[in-house]
Write a structure and sequence with these properties.
The strands form 4 sheets. Strands 5-6-12-7-10 form a 5-stranded antiparallel beta sheet, with no helix packed on it. It is built from 1 helix and 12 strands, in the order E-E-E-E-E-E-H-E-E-E-E-E-E. The N and C termini lie far apart (49 Å). The N terminus is likely disordered. A hairpin with a 5-residue loop joins strand 3 and strand 4. The longest helix has 11 residues. The chain is mainly β and 194 residues long. It has one domain: Jelly Rolls (Sandwich), CATH 2.60.120.10.
């Protein structure tokens, strides 16, 4: 379907019961005029090892873009950005009642996670508690639900709908002690290690 000469892609089938997110992108049209150049649904990236979790990767780059441009997304292949790069995502965290099946194949899971989220595993701690450290500054807005940010020594900070957080590259994990999924709008900016 076309609206104002912009292609609107049909809604994709969503994995893991996580709804798609609409992404509208502006840019310059063929006449150099500001315009909507893309209007589409983004499907969540999900993985069997993490049931209920979803990452809608809306936009990314690893090199400083120039503007104005034609609205084509720059390349940012890895899960976390390089220094100066960015990722704009919606991150869904299921309630803690969602569990991995007993017959889970951990080797297959590691391969799937690396395929769908390149480079992510290098930042995760080996004991599978979700704790990780990245060389990023993360700007987080709780769009729906509630979430607990775990820091060192099991410190937990409770965040609710409407709360914001700046996470400055410290060791952390996300915990959802609530009863429904939590959606976070996140911009991850690549930084240099101190």
């Amino acid at each position: 379907m076309f609206t104002n000469h912009v292609m609107i892609a049909p809604k994709p089938k969503m994995e893991n019961n996580i709804n798609g997110r609409r992404l509208i992108v502006t840019g310059l049209d063929t006449n150099g005029k500001s315009s909507v150049v893309r209007d589409r649904e983004i499907e969540a990236r999900t993985a069997a090892p993490m049931p209920g979790y979803g990452w809608h990767r809306l936009w990314s780059w690893d090199e400083t873009p120039t503007v104005p441009n034609n609205g084509v997304e720059p390349n940012g292949p890895n899960h976390f950005p390089a220094p100066g790069g960015a990722r704009f995502i919606v991150f869904t965290v299921p309630p803690g009642t969602v569990k991995v099946p007993a017959d889970f194949d951990f080797e297959a899971a590691k391969r799937e996670l690396e395929e769908k989220f390149p480079g992510r595993a290098a930042h995760m701690e080996s004991h599978q508690t979700g704790l990780h450290t990245t060389t990023t500054i993360d700007f987080i807005y709780v769009a729906d639900g509630e979430i607990w940010l775990e820091l060192d020594d099991k410190q937990e900070i409770h965040l609710k709908t409407g709360d914001s957080l700046v996470q400055n590259g410290v060791r952390h994990a996300w915990r959802n002690h609530g009863t429904k999924p939590c959606s976070l709008v996140v911009t991850i900016v690549g930084a240099e290690k101190a």
